[in-house]
NfeD family protein
Amino acid sequence: MDWSLATWWWVICGGLVAMELASGATFYLLMLALGAASAALAAHLGFGFSVQMVLAAVVGGAAVAVWHRRQLRHPRLPANQNPNVNLDIGQSLEVRHWRGDGTAEVHYRGAAWQARFIGNGAPHGGRHVIRAVEGSCLLLESA
């Protein structure tokens, strides 16, 4: 096996991907892996080591900046409030009677659920929308 500079860049790239998979938290290490991959491609094209280093820094740094900016624009919702994770979020149901403490028992999807009112003002009967789910408790707002 030829241990050229390109091979080392690919090893670094693979190591960053492996660390990202092990952490599983963010994509920042994958962005740095993009920089290492670009340096490996530069090495294959015959560019010198200094060009490879600059390319790895610029591409990796730019990818991290773009990813960070994207995360700021589209913050993640917690799983109990994310309609992409919990398909009940955003569904509507009928609440006939609220207890004095702002809770109710509702029938939804063929089962009895506990519900809690999270809207403004006093809860009243009628159509409500599921805004979040905490265990077996639906958090409802007026529709």
User: Anything to note?
Assistant: The longest helix spans residues 49-73. The longest strand covers residues 126-134. The two ends are 66 Å apart (CA to CA). The helical segments are 5-23, 28-44, 49-73.
